[in-house]
Design brief:
There is one protein chain. The chain has 295 residues and is α+β, with helices and mostly antiparallel strands. The protein has two helices and 21 strands. The chain folds into two domains: 95 residues, no CATH class; 154 residues, no CATH class. Strands 9, 10, 13 and 17 form a four-stranded antiparallel β-sheet that branches. It has a three-stranded antiparallel β-sheet with strand order 14-15-16, with no helix packed on it. Strands 1-4 form a two-stranded antiparallel ribbon. β18 and β19 form a beta hairpin. The protein is elongated.
């Protein structure tokens, strides 16, 4: 009976964590470049139940004087002790691109990148903007809502410096305003593109290509980190199918309607486990009442 309590309780804990992930997804449904987290529920390792035979090989109960055959195990079945939420897996599917008209809003389109086989599975690589984190390490984000700081450097909305193809922060020429910049599909930044007399190269936005994005770790602020160095598509000069779009923002890939539906299903599952625990609790109370010795 107590095993049923443990199973129902593990279900409640797992569904609570799943609800937290869904809530975070819904809260970031309007965050540019946000990638939703999918949750994976797994059963605890199953226990294989067996019975040891208490009779000999011919199926008869042994009698005195007969040779005894060592007992052999007979499979009965499998036993599961509940579920747990193993991990959150970000979904790096392309979000819809929305035109904003802002010159420093840049969206990545990477649907043209072909899949590759990793450990026997087809995995689609993903492209990211590379940013310099406060500790000097490199982070990766899909949020292309950029601006220019007081030092004339290209920064994200969180204040991280955007890295160029040379892996250094992008520094604009003095006096250049964001309205003076043009950005092509390769990430080349050109100042005063319509004025040949003042036209100047302002750098190139670095685009990192992560072969297996499932290995990235979310560190907050819509930024990920990698334990391994990530190459840029500009390193070998071969574009695998990535294009940048100036004046566009990639929206979150969260489906608000589906997420709300999943949240309601999760709540119903949580309530069902509550009822199971309530039923077991009533049974234990009755068992206690029957077995209680009245003074």
């Amino acid at each position: 009976m107590l095993r049923g309590l443990y199973s129902a309780a593990s279900g409640m804990f797992s569904l609570e964590r799943r609800q937290e992930a869904l809530t975070n997804n819904l809260a970031n449904a309007q965050t540019p470049g946000f990638k939703k987290d999918d949750t994976v529920l797994r059963a605890f390792p199953e226990l294989l139940i067996k019975r040891i035979q208490d009779f000999n090989g011919n199926g008869k109960v042994p009698v005195a004087g007969e040779i005894q055959i060592p007992g052999q195990s007979v499979p009965i079945g499998e036993l599961y002790n509940g579920v747990y939420l193993q991990e959150r897996i970000p979904s790096f599917n392309q979000g819809p691109l929305v035109e904003t008209g802002s010159p420093l809003d840049i969206a990545i389109e990477d649907q043209g990148i072909p899949t590759q086989e990793i450990n026997g599975q087809q995995v689609k690589p993903s492209a990211f903007f590379a940013v310099q984190l406060p500790d000097g390490t490199v982070g990766y984000t899909r949020n292309g809502k950029f601006d220019v700081d007081d030092a004339g450097q290209l920064v994200t909305s969180e204040g991280y410096r955007v890295l160029g193809a040379n892996r250094q922060p992008i520094q604009f020429p003095a006096g250049v305003q964001k309205e003076d910049l043009s950005i092509n599909a390769e990430g080349q930044l050109v100042a005063y593109a319509n004025d040949p007399a003042r036209m100047a190269n302002a750098g190139q936005i670095g685009v990192a290509l992560v072969g297996n994005p499932n290995e990235l770790h979310r560190i907050g602020g819509n930024v990920y980190e990698s334990t391994e160095p990530v190459p840029f598509i500009q390193d070998d000069g071969i574009n695998p199918g990535v294009a940048l779009h100036q004046g566009f923002i990639e929206q979150s890939n969260v489906d608000a309607g589906q997420t709300m539906t999943d949240m309601m299903i999760t709540v119903r599952g949580y309530e069902a486990n509550q009822k199971v625990i309530g039923t077991y609790d009533n049974s234990l109370q009755q068992l206690y009442s029957v077995g209680k010795i009245n003074g």
